[in-house]
Amino acid sequence: RLEAAVGAERTELRAELDRVTDAVRAEKTAEVAEEFDGVHNVQRAREVGAVHEIIAPSQMRPYLIEAVERGIAKALAKA
């Protein structure tokens, strides 16, 4: 229909096609995201080695301080 349409009808059909295309793309993107979220989480990331450790928010500051101190000690040992 779009190829045969002219003028205002063609413009309206093109706009409708764009709206439908955008809606379908959004729907499919949401489906993929939902599937991804159902499979991928931080616990799975740890299991497959993508994340070494899961740290509670309350432990983040002490963990980072310790990590920086380990890094400094390692660098000084090499010097």
Question: How is this structure best described in words?
Answer:
The protein has helices at 7-39, 42-47, 60-78. The chain is mainly alpha-helical and 79 residues long. The longest helix is centred in the N-terminal third of the chain and has 33 residues, at 7-39. The mean pLDDT is 93.
Terminal-residue CA separation: 75 Å
Uncertain runs = none
> Portion of residues in helices?
over 70%
The share of residues in extended strands comes to: under 5%
Shape: elongated
Count, helices? 3
* Major β-sheet profile: none
Class based on secondary structure composition and strand pairing: mainly alpha
The averaged pLDDT comes out at 93
Radius of gyration: 26 Å
Q: H/E element string?
A: HHH
Number of strands: 0
What are its keywords?
79 residues; mainly alpha; 3 helices; 0% strand; elongated
Task: Summarize this entry quickly.
73% of the residues lie in helices and 0% in strands.
Task: Summarize the SSE layout with pairings.
Blueprint: H1 7-39, H2 42-47, H3 60-78
